[in-house]
Amino acid sequence: MAPKSSHRSALGLLVLWQLYQQPMHVYRMQKLFEAEGKDRIVNVRSRASLYQTIERLQRLGLVVVAETMRQEGYPDRTVYAITDAGRDAAQLWLREMLSETGGEYPEFIVALSMLFGLPVEEAAAQLELRAGRIEAQLADSKRAIEAVPPELPRLFVLEEEYRVAMLETELAWLRGVIDDLQSGRISWSEESLRKAAEMFLPADKEDAR
Q: Among 74, 82, 172, 185, which lies 20 to 30 A Cα-Cα from 132?
């Protein structure tokens, strides 16, 4: 049976590709993710999230238990392996995630659509806080790139390069919006919001009766 793309997730793809290389237990998987810098793009620090993702992949038939490792003085560790369906799913999800642009609904975009829910000054202040955090993340990513050994192929740095590009773009955009808020070029009031609603939102036909 062909894997369903609706079941895909970023963490699920990372797990499948890690198991694509070889069977392993969750502790080993988590350490590899951190060593590869995957904790910078997906939340892999929570082992509970990893277990939940693996359980879901098991239910989908994409991952199976290969063996249970027992070592005196240590808790048993379950080793997971990818199935043929899991290999197909990993390929499908990778193609889709690389090419598609829909289906992503970040919280920040939702918050921007409701920016007028705060006073102008507070909205600007919250965006200032975000800008400061973006600056810190950007500096961190640039340090990570500078620390990359020159012999490491660029292929393994693309995700960090993309992260830097996106952070730089967002920071520049944020600074422009904050400046417009502080200067009054972007502003709102209850009256302006009401007028905008009257002008641009469809009228309720039942209310018009």
A: 185
